[in-house]
């Protein structure tokens, strides 16, 4: 099961070294890497020379004077009598994979019950970092993508981001899609073509620098100041094209968006409530409740312990036990309420 990988880079050798290492570290070794460089060839050639033996003929380097469109990178339809990779992945120099990414993604797509899936995505970290003294310093780590199985087309249409680094697609499906302009178009096209499964493990890394200047600044296909307006314009254009092709489907969008907004509101409310408790304080409260309840249980003699009151006589015993039970009833009710029993 050969995987075709396209890795894009431009004058960022420090990041490229990490990206190449993440490909070489894959526990699934049947892959072919095309390294597409649009910057200075010298540092790329020097870096590749270090890894040449490890690549063992699985690397092709392309130095380009222009930046190819994404449509030029998507695999072409297979040619007769020429073996073609069955799977395809898009990598960038500021992305990386867990060593088990390809193995587990391929295992998912090769499963007999998932032959109809067009692609699979894994959960993904977003890491904020900075370049300092020729090295990389991590500053923060959060969630770049996590979703239930499968990926919801409605979420992608309403702005959810599925980074291309955490997606492995069937090459034959990609070859039949309309030419994508952006990675988001590629992912949306896959979702419209069929189900994108989800592996609920963080097996991909999307790195972003905190500095917005210099050669290692984050890159975008559009000016950052204009991004919100252009994003809305692109979404509007997609909806117009959808309305022209499939008018009946357009009526589903308001209902789907409303459902998504309601579910988002519910999840946000649950997270806020959970955060309000404070996990450490909540665990400490549960422990205190258990200790108090145990102490209250000890105040009420068992049947065998009650035999020690024989010398006091039946009336005295009953009076003592009833007093203990009455005294412990209010706190016992409070404990039961706090622990969800009543």
Gyration radius, in Å: 30 Å
CATH topology of the largest domain: Spore Coat Polysaccharide Biosynthesis Protein SpsA, Chain A
CATH architecture of the largest domain: Alpha-Beta Complex
CATH class of the largest domain reads Alpha Beta
Mean pLDDT: 78
Estimate the global geometry from the Cα principal axes: globular
How much of the sequence is in beta strands?
15-25%
Give the N-to-C terminal Cα separation. 57 Å
Please specify the SSE layout and strand pairing.
Blueprint: E1 3-9, H1 13-24, E2 31-37, H2 41-55, E3 59-63, H3 70-73, E4 87-92, E5 95-97, H4 101-110, E6 119-132, E7 135-145, H5 153-157, E8 167-170, H6 171-175, H7 183-193, E9 196-209, H8 227-245, H9 247-250, H10 252-277, H11 279-299, H12 303-306, H13 314-338
Parallel strand pairs: 1-2, 1-4, 2-3, 6-9
Antiparallel strand pairs: 4-8, 5-9, 6-7, 6-8
Tell me what the structure shows.
It is a single chain. Helix 1 runs parallel beside helix 2 and helix 11 packs antiparallel against helix 13. This protein is an alpha/beta fold. It is globular and about 85 Å long. The protein folds into two domains: 216 residues, Spore Coat Polysaccharide Biosynthesis Protein SpsA, Chain A; 60 residues. Strand 6 and strand 7 form a beta hairpin. The relative contact order is 0.10. Strands 1, 2, 3, 4, 5, 6, 7, 8 and 9 form a nine-stranded mixed sheet that branches.
Quick overview of this protein structure:
This protein is of the alpha/beta class.
